[in-house]
Design goal:
Chain A: Keywords: Membrane, Transmembrane, Transmembrane helix. The complex is a heterodimer of chains A (384) and B (196). Chain A contains 13 helices and 10 strands. Chain A is an alpha+beta fold. In chain A, a hairpin with a 3-residue loop joins strand 1 and strand 2. In chain A, helix 2 packs antiparallel against helix 5. Classes of the chains: A alpha+beta (384), B mainly alpha (196).
C-alpha cells in the first residue's frame, strides 16, 4: 500500500475537520476597521493640532518680553504639553493602524510618522480656521476638571494681581482711571494713561482687557500696559463675542450660575456696562436669550409653572387663586373674578381681547381695567 | 469532495489561478500544497532548527492557515510571498512557544547555493567549501532568528528584496540593512567558530 504524501494527509485532515476558508467579508471588514481607526486617530490628532495653534496664537508671543525674562522661559510656560502628548499618542495610534493595512509595511516608520505629522498639521490648521481649537478648549474648560489650572493656564496666569497681571471687563471709564470687573466678581480701580493701551484704540465699556502693572492697594492697580485683544478665554471673559452661542453659561453648574447672578448685581452700579451687556444679550437667539434672562434673574418666569402661588392666596376662599407668568413676571390672578354664572365655562375660550372682560363682579374693588385682562382666551383679574 | 475530473496537468497553472480554482473546488488545494510542500519544509528546517517531524507539524498548521485565509490573499502579491509570509509567522509562533528545544537535523544544501552564500557574504576563499557546506547550520543556528531568516531567504531560498520585503512585511530599505547586518554577524560567528 502506498504511503500517502504529507500534502494528502493534510488535505484529508482539512476534509475530515470540515475546515473551510473564512468568508471574504471578514477580511474586508478588518481592512475597513483598520483604515477607519487610522483615519479617526488622524482626525483626533488634527483636532489636537487645532487646539495647539489656538493656544499658541493667543500665547502673547508679541509681548513675551513684558511677561517673561526670556524667550525660553516664555516657551516653557506656554507649551501646550497636554495637547502635544495627546497629538503624539494619536499619531502613534494612526501609524500603528496604517502599518496594519495591506501595504503599510512597505513604508518606513519614519516616513509614516512624518506623513502623519504633515497631514495633522494641514488638517489641524484647516480645523483651526473653522474655530475647532477654541471650541474644544471651551468645552474642555467646562467639562474637564483642572483643565484651566493645568492645561490652558492662560486665564489663571492673567488673574494674578500680586504678580502684576489682571484680566477683566471694563465696567466704567473715567479720565485717568477705569473700573474693572474680574471674573471672580472683584472690582478694581485701574490707573492708566492712554499711551499704555495696545493697540492704540479707545477703551470701551464692556470690553475684556488685560493689564500688566502693579497692585498698589487692595483693589487698586497701576497699569503699565493695557492689552485690548481678547485672550484665549472662556466664560465671562470671552463675552464680547458677537457669536452669542458662546455666551451661554453652563447653568448646570450652580457656582457658575451664582457667579453670573452676582455679576448682574454688580452691574447695577455700572449702568453703561449693564446696557452694553444687555444689548449683546438681545442678539442671542430668542430661546437662549429668554433662558439667560430667566437664569440671570432678569426674567422672573418663562412659563406658568415657573410661578408658585403664595401661601396667603392659597388659603383664601374668595377665589381659586393661581399664579401665572405674565410678561415674564409672576402674577397672582383670579380666573373667576367676574360673573359667577360663567363658572362653568372657565376652561372655554371666553374672550378675544381685554375689552371683552369685565371684572366688576370681583369683590375687590381695587381691580381696575388695566388689571382685568384677556389672557390666552380667558379673563383674569390680576390681583398681585 | 472529489479530485477535479480532468486529465489536465495543473502543474503549469499559475499559483494565483489555482487559488481562485480552490475557492470554487477544494480539491485544487492539493495541487498548491504539493507545489509548496518540499519548498516550505526545507525553509522551516533552515530557519528554525527543529526536527523533521516537528517541521511537518508546523507545515500542517501552515497549510491549514493558508486554506482558511485564502479569501484574504492579496492578488497584488505573489502567492509564493504570501505563503512564505504565513510560514514565517507560523515558525516564529512555534519558535516562541518552544524556545528550549533539542537540535534538529540539518537539511543538505547544494554546492551551488553554498557558493552563492560564500560570494554574497564575502567569506574568505581559503575556507573549505565542503566543510562550510557541512557546518553552515552550526553558524546559522548561533545567529538571531531575524538575521538567520534573511540570509536563508536571500541566499538559500534565492528570494529577491521585493519578495523578502513582502514575506517579512518590512520595507525594502530595512531588508537591505538587515541583510547587511546579517552578513556581518555571519562573518563574526565564522571568526568565533573557525571551521577551516
Amino acid at each position: 500500500m502506498n504511503k500517502k504524501s504529507l500534502s494528502e494527509r493534510i488535505f484529508n485532515k482539512i476534509k475530515e475537520k470540515k475546515i473551510i476558508p473564512r468568508p471574504r467579508w471578514e477580511f474586508l471588514l478588518k481592512n475597513y476597521i483598520v483604515w477607519l481607526l487610522g483615519v479617526i486617530s488622524l482626525i483626533i490628532g488634527s483636532l489636537s493640532v487645532s487646539v495647539i495653534i489656538f493656544m499658541f496664537k493667543f500665547s502673547d508671543f508679541d509681548i513675551y518680553e513684558s511677561l517673561h525674562n526670556n524667550f525660553f522661559e516664555f516657551l516653557i510656560s506656554n507649551l501646550p504639553y497636554f495637547w502635544i502628548i495627546f497629538l503624539i499618542l494619536f499619531i502613534v495610534v494612526a501609524d500603528y493602524n496604517f502599518k496594519q493595512t495591506k501595504k503599510g509595511y512597505k513604508y518606513k516608520l519614519s516616513t509614516i510618522i512624518l506623513s502623519s505629522i504633515i497631514i495633522s498639521i494641514f488638517l489641524g490648521s484647516s480645523l483651526f480656521a473653522f474655530g475647532s481649537g477654541e471650541l474644544i478648549d471651551n468645552i474642555m474648560s467646562r467639562q474637564a476638571p483642572f483643565y484651566s489650572e493645568l492645561i490652558n493656564r492662560n486665564i489663571k496666569n492673567w488673574d494674578n494681581p500680586e504678580g502684576g497681571k489682571l484680566i477683566g471687563i471694563v465696567a466704567a471709564i473715567q479720565k485717568n482711571d477705569l473700573n474693572l470687573l474680574t471674573h471672580d466678581q472683584k472690582e478694581w480701580v485701574v490707573f492708566y494713561n492712554s499711551n499704555q493701551v495696545l493697540p492704540q484704540k479707545e477703551i470701551k465699556v464692556g470690553e475684556p482687557i488685560r493689564i500688566i502693572g502693579e497692585k498698589q492697594e487692595e483693589n487698586i492697580f497701576k497699569a503699565k500696559q493695557i492689552l485690548l485683544m481678547p485672550p484665549p478665554g472662556r466664560e465671562f471673559i470671552n463675552r464680547n463675542r458677537k457669536d452669542m452661542q458662546r455666551l451661554m453659561p453652563n447653568f448646570n453648574d450652580p457656582e457658575e450660575k451664582n457667579r453670573m447672578k452676582e455679576m448682574i448685581k454688580k452691574m447695577e452700579k455700572y449702568p453703561e456696562l449693564r446696557e452694553t451687556m444687555m444689548e449683546r444679550l438681545e442678539m442671542a437667539p430668542l430661546e437662549m436669550k429668554q433662558n439667560l434672562k430667566k437664569e440671570l434673574g432678569l426674567y422672573e418666569c418663562l412659563i406658568h409653572s415657573d410661578c408658585k402661588t403664595p401661601f396667603e392666596y392659597m388659603v383664601r376662599s374668595d377665589c381659586p387663586f393661581e399664579s401665572r407668568c405674565l410678561e415674564n413676571k409672576c402674577r397672582v390672578v383670579c380666573p373667576r373674578a367676574f360673573d359667577s354664572k360663567l363658572k362653568e365655562s372657565i376652561n372655554k375660550k371666553q374672550c378675544g381681547e381685554n375689552k371683552d372682560c369685565q371684572c366688576e363682579h370681583y369683590k375687590d374693588k381695587n381691580i381696575n381695567n388695566e388689571n382685568c385682562r384677556c389672557v390666552e382666551g380667558q379673563c383674569l383679574a390680576i390681583v398681585e | 469532495m472529489n479530485k477535479p475530473q480532468t486529465n489536465e496537468n495543473f502543474s503549469d497553472y499559475p499559483d494565483e489561478e489555482l487559488v481562485a480554482m480552490t475557492l470554487e473546488n477544494q480539491s485544487f488545494f492539493l495541487y498548491l500544497m504539493k507545489r509548496y510542500e518540499q519548498k516550505l519544509l526545507r525553509y522551516i528546517l533552515r530557519i528554525s532548527n527543529i526536527s523533521y517531524e516537528e517541521a511537518e507539524d508546523v507545515l500542517q498548521d501552515i497549510f491549514i492557515k493558508v486554506y482558511q485565509n485564502l479569501n484574504g490573499f492579496d492578488s497584488e502579491l505573489k502567492f509564493s510571498s504570501w505563503i512564505y509570509r504565513i510560514a514565517h509567522n507560523e515558525v516564529i509562533n512555534n519558535f516562541r512557544k518552544n524556545k528550549a528545544r533539542a537540535h534538529g537535523h540539518a537539511v543538505s544544501i547544494d554546492e551551488n547555493l553554498i557558493n552563492k552564500l560564500v560570494s554574497g557574504i564575502n567569506v574568505e576563499k581559503e575556507i573549505d567549501q565542503k566543510y562550510l557546506q557541512k557546518n553552515i547550520y552550526k553558524i546559522l543556528e548561533k545567529m538571531d532568528i531575524k538575521y538567520r531568516e534573511v540570509l536563508v531567504l536571500k541566499f538559500l531560498e534565492e528570494k529577491d528584496y521585493k519578495e523578502i520585503s513582502d514575506i517579512l512585511k518590512k520595507p525594502m530599505g530595512t531588508i537591505a540593512t538587515l541583510i547587511n547586518r546579517a552578513k556581518n554577524k555571519f562573518l563574526e560567528e565564522l571568526k568565533l567558530n573557525p571551521i577551516k
